[in-house]
Amino acid sequence: MNPLVCPKCGSDMRAYERNGVTIDQCTGCRGIFLDRGELEKLTDAEASYYGSRPAPAAPAPAQYPAPAPARYPDDRYRDDDRYRGGDRDDYYKKKKKKRSFLDDLFD
């Protein structure tokens, strides 16, 4: 059998077997090459190895942290009578009309 030649550097390659898979390794550049059948054996072995373990859980989606609670209550309108409801400011009250003598007749 003719020795295999490395496609990268042209050196001779040696073949060895590990766990039922034949691996071709270059003696010059130390590159590893697999035949198609050997690659399929590796992928089948990997699938059976990881198939026995439970699938890893998907990471939780990233969320923004909850806003921090206010350290002080919002009391900027506490002292302002305009925001309390009702008409308490005398300056803005409706002014009463002067009553005439005819108003008493028509009431």
Descriptive report:
- With 107 residues, the chain is α+β, with helices and mostly antiparallel strands.
- It has a domain at 13-51.
- The chain is 19% helix and 13% strand.
- β2 and β3 (32-33) form a beta hairpin.
- The radius of gyration is 45 Å and the shape is rod-shaped.
Give a summary of the structure in a few sentences.
This protein has helices spanning 36-51, 103-106, and strands at 13-18, 21-26, 32-33.
The shape is: rod-shaped
User: Gyration radius, to the nearest Å?
Assistant: 45 Å
H/E series: EEEHH
Strand content: 5-15%
Instruction: Tell me about the largest β-sheet.
Output: 3 strands, antiparallel
Domain Transcription factor zinc-finger: 6-44
Region (Disordered): 50-90
Biased composition (Basic and acidic residues): 72-90
Pfam family, one: Zn_ribbon_TFIIB
